[in-house]
Amino acid sequence: MVDKIEIADEQDAHVITYERLITAVREILFDAGYTAGEVSIAIVTDSAMHELNRQYLEHDYPTDVLSFVLESEAERLVGQLIVSADYAAREAPTFGWTTDDEVLLYTIHGALHLVGHDDQEPELKAEMREQEKYYLSKFGLSPQYS
User: Fold this and answer.
1) Within 13 Å, how many C-alpha atoms sit on residue 75's CB side?
2) Looking at the predicted structure, is the pLDDT value of residue 11 above 90?
3) Hey, what CATH class is 4-137 in?
């Protein structure tokens, strides 16, 4: 089991259920074969996400989630997820669920990136979407994206 999953909620506009995020990340890493490690999850505002995108990806706009693998060994992973709660709040009504649910989706998506999933090619994106659906279903959710 992953040693430590920490959450830093750096925004105060949205209520987030931390336990779901921790459970999802723990399951994804365990299913991928990681039995040790640490993951930090930062929940931020759009302005903070915008700045991080400029700094690390040279994108001049906010995104939903950023994932960083800091260390990866055979059964140990250290990584960081950064999720924009503001972005989630804007997108959630489109899909008929709460900001909290959308933040969970972004966390699952980011954790899948940490364990090696990619969504740049159509086949890989379809596989990643299936994984998202699988993990969301554990929380009684079904994504509404096509």
Assistant:
1) 7
2) yes
3) alpha beta
